[in-house]
Structures are given as C-alpha cells and as structure tokens.
Design goal:
This protein is an alpha/beta fold. It has 9 helices and 8 strands. Strands 1, 2, 3, 4, 5, 6, 7 and 8 form an 8-stranded mixed beta sheet that branches.
C-alpha cells in the first residue's frame, strides 16, 4: 500500500511554477558542491515537478539518476522538463519513500531536498534511506527553517501568517522548522562524518533577481498559497491574513530586505 504524506502546498500549476522559480533562483546556493561521479547511481527522493532534478542532471551528466515521487502528475511535468532540456541521464518512477521498490544497497548517493519537512517520521525515513546506500555511499539533505526569516520592515502581521504556514504543516504531520534538526537526524540515522552548514538567501534592492525570484515568487508566494486553508482552520481571518501577506510583499520594495536560512547536510553510510 502506498503511504501518501500530505503536501501542504498542494499540487496545482501555480505551485509547480513556484517550485521552478525557487529552484532557478537557489540553484547555485543549494547545489554548489554537489556533483556525482560518472556511472554512479543516484536516487532523488521526492522529485516533484523536477525543479531540483534539472540541476542534479546538468551538474552530473554522466551519473545515472533515478528520481521518484508519489504524484504521477508531478512526474509527468518532471519528464517534460528534463526532455525539454535535452538531458538523458534521469529515469522517473512512481514510488513512495515509505515503501521503496529497490533492493538494499542499490545506490551510491541519495539526494533529498525539501522532503523531510513534510514527513511525520523523518528519522525513520532517513534510516530506510541509509539501507538503500552502498557502504561508503553518501546522502545529501537540504531543508529550510521557517523560524529563520529576518526582514525589514519588521511586521507582527507577517510573523503571524508565517506562523499559519508552520502550524498547517505541523497539523499535516510535518515540520517547517526542520532545518535546525538536520545534524541530529542524520547522526541518529547512523550516518558518519555528518556535516551541516547554513546556506543563507538574502534579498535587497541591490539584488533584484533575488527580490523577484525568492522574496516574491518563492517565500511570499508559498505563504500566500495557504490562505484558504489557514482561514478554514481558524488560524486567521481573511483581513488579517491579507495584511500579513502585504507586509511580506513590503519587504520586496526598494527599502525592504528579506533573509532566510536553508541548511544543507551530508552524511556517509559506514563502509
């Protein structure tokens, strides 16, 4: 039986576009230092619409990448994206991370980006992924932390709508602040030589691409997308939620700033 973990942001076309904007803006920040050797087998868990897959495939053109997701509509979009880019080193499969269809020790490397935050038992999943690696194989995990945003002008209304996002994710079984937990999660799963480092996204008027690509199209769009769910859950009324979104949009104006911290962790399965 397939176990489907709730994805609080949904699977509509707008969310797919937001993920693509996010990946394009953050590619160098998040993927710097991640390449895989020729003929190595790489598993990407929770590939979604292929937003991160594109960077993986371009940066490691001679690796064999198997990308999995639980949503066939997302996989179809990912296949189109990779085909349009003229890349031929990715195989897509419908699969659930809780019930992987692969033999143990099948992969040299595993890549997990923005997935653990949505899972009710990330520690258990990391333990399963440990078993999918060959001895000496590596796992790379990237997660954000919704407790990390710093912005100007400061706004209690903006903080409240971010808190709505965090609470909705908690109710769905996830943790929007999981970035700070990456090191202990990887270590407890049995990985060695665990290394976790912050990757800070910062946008101001001197970085217009980041203002548009991250502050507006990534973070603010993500928070705005949960409006109806937050109101239905009684976490906010329409007026207060809209005030909070406007306050976030204000940080993208000429005298505004926005800062957010991602965490990138790596670990090795002992040989």
């Amino acid at each position: 039986m397939q176990i489907v973990s709730p994805y609080v942001h949904g699977y509509d076309e707008a969310e797919g576009l937001r993920l693509q904007d996010q990946a394009a803006t953050l590619e160098e920040l998040l993927h710097c230092g991640t390449t895989y050797q020729s003929r190595s087998r790489v598993l990407e868990v929770g590939c979604g619409v292929g937003a991160q897959t594109l960077a993986l495939a371009r940066r490691s053109p001679d690796a064999q990448i198997i990308a999995i997701d639980i949503a066939e509509t997302s996989l179809a979009a990912a296949r189109r994206r990779i085909n349009e880019a003229g890349l031929h080193n990715v195989e897509f499969r419908l699969a659930d991370v809780h019930a992987l269809p692969f033999a143990l020790s099948s992969f040299d490397h595993i890549f997990v980006c923005f997935v653990l935050e949505h899972l009710p038992d990330p520690a258990g999943v990391l333990g399963q992924l440990w078993g999918q690696l060959t001895p000496g194989g590596t796992l790379t995990a990237i997660e954000g932390d919704h407790g990390s945003p710093l912005f100007h002008p400061e706004s209690a209304a903006a903080r409240r709508v971010i808190a709505c996002q965090v609470e909705l994710q908690r109710r769905a079984g996830g943790d929007a602040c999981i970035g700070r937990r990456l090191h202990p999660l990887l270590a407890q799963a049995g990985f060695i030589d665990v290394s976790v480092a912050p990757r800070m996204a910062y946008a101001n008027a001197s970085r217009p691409d980041w203002v548009e690509g991250f502050t507006r199209r990534t973070f603010t769009a993500m928070v705005a997308s949960v409006r109806d769910d937050a109101i239905a859950a009684g976490l906010a009324d329409a007026a207060s939620f809209d005030d909070g979104v406007r306050a976030l949009e204000r940080t993208a104006t000429l005298d505004g700033t926005f800062c957010y911290t991602f965490f990138k962790g790596t670990g090795i399965r002992p040989a």
